[in-house]
Description:
Number of domains: 2
Oligomer: single chain
Strand content: 15-25%
Number of strands: 5
Structural class: alpha/beta
Largest sheet: 3 strands, parallel
Radius of gyration: 29 Å
Number of helices: 4
Amino acid sequence: xxxxxxxTGRSTPGVLDRLKGIYVDLLSAPAFDGSAVPSFERRxxxxxxxxxxxxxxxxxxxxxxxxxxxxxEVADRRQLAPGEFRQVTRRSAxxxxxxxxxxxxxxxxxxxxxxxxxxxxxxxxxxxxxxxPGSRRSNSRSA
Length: 143
């Protein structure tokens, strides 16, 4: 089971007074009032973590667990801009295709392993049977 944790916007001595009788394993806040530290020391098992929300580490880690093992990997936070796309074929992509590619690139990072992301509209000529304006639809098919 997960240990109870609490995050506050600001930590003062009164925070722990209000938590009297409630077990909290971890207390985190952007900053701690210096006068609050002695009250934290009275709770032997309490872990105190100061987290600056403005600080973004250069590398962030993602943890996955399976079969009682832990896999740590560097999180992929890179944003690819359409200007970074390279043309590696003779035919250039249309602006609509570049827009669809940009959308697919942003979506695929959230897809699960082996998932497929389809982006862009299908060609309309193959999805709807052609019919002349004013002609009636026939229910019979010619052989």
